[in-house]
Amino acid sequence: MAVSVSVVVLLLVLTVIYLRSGGLKVTHAIVCALLGFFLAGTSMAPTIQNGVAATAEVVSSLRP
């Protein structure tokens, strides 16, 4: 749960930055959000969640 909340916050921050810089249009952000909602309802959702969790685990284990 903590991983998904932090990923959502990170994506929200990136979206706001892109919207403010003009690199992302509001319509593009809406389409991306709708895609996320539709993907969450498919059979691919557990695979995507496992992939994000595994990536977060690898990144958190890296030491600079």
Structure write-up:
This is Secreted protein. With 64 residues, this protein is mainly alpha-helical. It has three helices and no strands.
Based on DSSP secondary structure assignment, what is the total number of beta strands?
Answer: 0
Residue share in β-strands: under 5%
How many H/I helices? Answer: 3
Main β sheet profile: none
What ranges have pLDDT less than 50 throughout 5 or more consecutive residues? none
Radius of gyration: 14 Å
Q: Can you write the helix and strand succession as a string?
A: HHH
In percent, how helical is the residue content?
A: over 70%
Protein name: Secreted protein
Features:
single chain; 64 residues; mainly alpha; flat
What's the quick description here?
This protein has 64 residues and is an all-alpha fold. It has helices spanning 2-21, 26-40, 45-61. It is built from 3 helices and no strands.
Question: How does the SSE layout of this entry go?
Answer:
Elements (H helix, E strand, L loop, with lengths): L1 H20 L4 H15 L4 H17 L3
Protein name: Secreted protein
Organism: Streptomyces hydrogenans
